[in-house]
Amino acid sequence: MPVGDRRSLLPLTTLSSLNLLGITLRDLLDILLVAALLYQGYKLVVGTRAVNVLRGIMVFAGVWVAARLLGLVTLTDLLGRAGTVGLFALVVLFQPELRAALERVGRPRGAAERDGAALQDLARALERLAERKTGALVAIERRTPLGEYAATGVPLDAVVSVPFIEALFVRNAPLHDGGVILQGARIVAAGCLFPLQASDGTYRRYGTRHRAAIGLSEVTDAVVLIVSEERGSMRIALNGRLGPDLTPTELREQLRELVYEREALSPLPAVPAPEGRP
Ligand SMILES: Nc1ncnc2c1ncn2[C@@H]1O[C@H](COP(=O)(O)OP(=O)(O)OP(=O)(O)O)[C@@H](O)[C@H]1O
């Protein structure tokens, strides 16, 4: 039997102790698992405010390592102690994000399908509102929890349905003012106040509904949908930018891409600078 064949019959435990360039199979497995864990961790925080904090932590860790290498005992000790306290502070600060991330990990099978059906209903409801020129504002939560904005409105726990969304925005309905917030397939709040986009010139000519949508999309990774009362058009605000008018088919496609296929966190295509009122 050739040597190669004989080697392939060796059990993993024996192979793991083989030492190639000082790296064993066990080391490789260890590195691969840590890399996979780090990648999954990165996917959980990308697009949330935690990314900036993560960068800060890396700078902090870099300074600590440099201080250690240079033998700066007092600085190393000080940073080490601050790091320990900081870890606890981070858990408290990012408690909503951590909870949302763990919920995503433990999401039951079938939830994604339910969300997909809810998005279809949402798109249909917005089309109908646009046809009748009834203004609407809907934020769909992705990775950044929208709890603090939901708290500014009336809490709900309702299944997304075409008539219910239409009823929420009907003129003079008690909750028609402000925005609706969706988490998965459920409407969690209505009549919510979103932060207005700071008037930096680009969106100065837009009314408050559009600026509230852009404002929320600046500070979170939510997909924010707007139906204009004035023009009966449908648009999406994402990453602090307002997208172009969408046809019903385009709206469905965008929702599928941005929300249903959750991994696709790509920004909207570049939006041309607005010329005049929406
Ligand atoms: N901060 C806010 N958060 C959520 N909704 C808001 C906020 N400010 C205003 N709105 C909503 O926007 C409505 C006013 O829209 P306005 O006409 O000023 O905006 P617009 O961008 O011109 O939209 P439209 O094209 O529909 O007229 C309010 O009745 C309210 O429902």
Automatic annotation (TrEMBL):
<protein>
    <recommendedName>
        <fullName>Diadenylate cyclase</fullName>
        <ecNumber>2.7.7.85</ecNumber>
    </recommendedName>
</protein>
<comment type="subunit">
    <text>Probably a homodimer.</text>
</comment>
<keyword id="KW-1133">Transmembrane helix</keyword>
<comment type="similarity">
    <text>Belongs to the adenylate cyclase family. DacA/CdaA subfamily.</text>
</comment>
<dbReference type="GO" id="GO:0006171">
    <property type="term" value="P:cAMP biosynthetic process"/>
</dbReference>
<dbReference type="InterPro" id="IPR045585">
    <property type="entry name" value="CdaA_N"/>
</dbReference>
<dbReference type="InterPro" id="IPR034701">
    <property type="entry name" value="CdaA"/>
</dbReference>
<keyword id="KW-0472">Membrane</keyword>
<dbReference type="InterPro" id="IPR050338">
    <property type="entry name" value="DisA"/>
</dbReference>
<keyword id="KW-1003">Cell membrane</keyword>
<feature type="transmembrane region" description="Helical">
    <location>
        <begin position="51"/>
        <end position="72"/>
    </location>
</feature>
<comment type="function">
    <text>Catalyzes the condensation of 2 ATP molecules into cyclic di-AMP (c-di-AMP), a second messenger used to regulate differing processes in different bacteria.</text>
</comment>
<dbReference type="InterPro" id="IPR036888">
    <property type="entry name" value="DNA_integrity_DisA_N_sf"/>
</dbReference>
<dbReference type="GO" id="GO:0106408">
    <property type="term" value="F:diadenylate cyclase activity"/>
</dbReference>
<keyword id="KW-0547">Nucleotide-binding</keyword>
<dbReference type="InterPro" id="IPR003390">
    <property type="entry name" value="DNA_integrity_scan_DisA_N"/>
</dbReference>
<dbReference type="GO" id="GO:0005524">
    <property type="term" value="F:ATP binding"/>
</dbReference>
<dbReference type="Pfam" id="PF19293">
    <property type="entry name" value="CdaA_N"/>
</dbReference>
<keyword id="KW-0548">Nucleotidyltransferase</keyword>
<feature type="transmembrane region" description="Helical">
    <location>
        <begin position="20"/>
        <end position="39"/>
    </location>
</feature>
<keyword id="KW-0808">Transferase</keyword>
<dbReference type="Pfam" id="PF02457">
    <property type="entry name" value="DAC"/>
</dbReference>
<keyword id="KW-0812">Transmembrane</keyword>
<feature type="domain" description="DAC">
    <location>
        <begin position="95"/>
        <end position="248"/>
    </location>
</feature>
<dbReference type="GO" id="GO:0004016">
    <property type="term" value="F:adenylate cyclase activity"/>
</dbReference>
<dbReference type="InterPro" id="IPR014046">
    <property type="entry name" value="C-di-AMP_synthase"/>
</dbReference>
<keyword id="KW-0067">ATP-binding</keyword>
